[in-house]
Design brief:
440 residues, 3 domains, six-stranded antiparallel β-sheet, eight-stranded antiparallel β-sheet, Immunoglobulin-like, alpha+beta, single chain
Length: 440
């Protein structure tokens, strides 16, 4: 093929160097002028023949280019990141090209999918011939609900997606992410739910996976490291880098630890793990993540952009872990309390003042920036009063850079004896630790 390409290229250069003699140009012009009356039917035939020849030549020389562009997913550039754009330009993906039409005329077209070790990406469009725009400005028929992919034994729920409105609100291009199908899946069904005037209509698009189009993974490493702080611990299980993204997997509690804390009334509800992925000394862009509680316990996945092709070093920087904790602490208060300090599960809480106003009791407190009393009551003369609102909330930056959060809790009742009841509290524990990932 290289020799053929060279021959064609040499021939092209030779042809480009040919110059038409001026005398020939003049003679041809004169002949055309003299024969102009001899008829358009012949000219039309000649024009069509020349055009046909040009088309054949064009297709012959550019067949690979046309086939290449036919493999691309067109119109999705605005919702693809740089990595996906590069993969799309390289034709990395499986073209599907199947439609489903709902009763109201809405057409869903599955243009294609990309598959690797971390996810399945579905490229699809939703179009309706006569769009009605609702008060929020979103076209009525351009959103599909409860999108999922059904395999032989498993269902793969949508993990996230984004869309772009095009063609004057007549069409939306969507890009949705699903869990990567297991190795034995061959035929998949994209399940669609459309809500029209309160009624749900179901549809589906079936397609067969071409495993030759799957991209696998670039790097897969087992980590098996556990980081601990005073009240929490985070286990890092593995990291998998594929052409579309890099995923870090881990857990906070296994099922036995989860059940134990549930029975003892000391359950934690994880909210977020702040981590950064550093490759070759540079931070990799974060793409998203999830935290799940099920029969496996509490697990998490953090997704980042793909890794550089020439990987020299790889680190996970674990910044902090925030969770909601069962606390169940009772603190006796009175109207004379000023700047009363205490620690609950290692978190500093200061009662600045307690006062009454207009048949209500107000308690001003100061905590760390991340500390929130998520379930708090005020015991007043054997009555448990719910928090009505939080007012006068301020963040104050200290000289050392830390931020304190001062706010006032409003309880709509007064009495003689007071007791602050804290049942649940959210806070972040700082880890600031690095896990080095061997890349060889």
């Amino acid at each position: 093929m290289q020799q053929v390409e060279k021959m064609l290229n040499d021939k092209k250069i030779e042809i480009d160097k040919i110059e038409v003699p001026i005398e020939l140009e003049e003679r041809l012009a004169q002949v055309l002028k003299d024969k102009s009356i001899v008829k358009r039917s012949r000219n039309n035939w000649m024009t069509k023949a020349v055009a046909a020849c040009l088309i054949v030549i064009f297709i012959g020389y550019n067949f690979d280019t046309l086939a290449f562009y036919g493999k691309r997913f067109m119109g999705y550039d605005t919702i693809m990141n740089g990595t996906l754009k590069q993969l799309n330009d390289l034709g990395k993906g499986q073209v599907i090209g199947k439609n489903y039409t709902f009763k109201n005329g809405t057409v869903v077209r599955l243009d294609g999918v990309m598959i690797d070790a971390n996810q399945l990406l579905a490229f699809y469009s939703v179009k309706h011939p006569s769009i009605e725009v609702n008060p929020s400005g979103i076209p009525t028929y351009l959103s599909i609900h409860n999108l999922s992919i059904h395999g032989t034994w498993r269902t793969y729920a949508e993990k996230g997606g984004q869309g772009h409105i095009a063609h004057e609100n007549e069409e939306v291009k969507w890009l949705s992410s699903f869990e990567a199908p297991v190795f034995y899946e061959k035929t998949l069904n994209l399940k669609l739910n459309l809500i029209d005037n309160g009624a749900v209509e179901e549809g589906q698009i079936s397609f067969k996976l071409d495993r030759n189009k799957a991209m696998g993974h670039n790097l897969k490493k087992t980590i098996n490291q556990t980081l601990k702080e005073s009240q929490t611990q985070v286990r890092f299980k593995s990291i998998t880098a594929s052409p579309t993204r890099t995923v870090i997997s881990g857990s906070v509690q296994n099922i036995f630890e989860l059940v134990k804390d549930q029975l003892s009334g000391e359950r934690i509800r994880p909210e977020n793990i702040e981590i950064k992925l550093i490759a070759n000394g540079k931070e990799i862009a974060w793409q998203g993540g999830e935290m799940t509680t099920d029969f496996k316990g509490i697990t998490f996945h953090k997704a980042f952009d793909t890794l550089p092709s020439e990987l020299k070093s790889l680190e996970i920087y674990v910044e902090s872990f925030s969770a909601d904790h069962d606390v169940n602490e009772n603190i006796k208060l009175n109207l004379e309390d000023k700047n009363k300090s205490m620690h609950i599960q290692g978190q500093a809480i200061q009662i600045d003042k307690v006062y009454e106003s207009k048949d209500s009791t107000f308690i001003t407190i100061t905590t760390g920036e991340s500390t929130i009393l998520t379930r708090v009551y005020l015991g007043i003369d054997d009555n448990k009063i719910e928090l009505k609102e939080t007012i006068e909330s301020n963040l104050i930056k200290q000289e050392d850079g830390t931020i304190l959060h001062t706010r006032t809790l409003h309880f709509p009742k007064t009495g003689k004896n007071y007791q602050l009841i804290i049942e649940r509290m959210t806070y972040a524990e700082l880890y600031n630790k690095i896990i080095e990932i061997p890349i060889h």
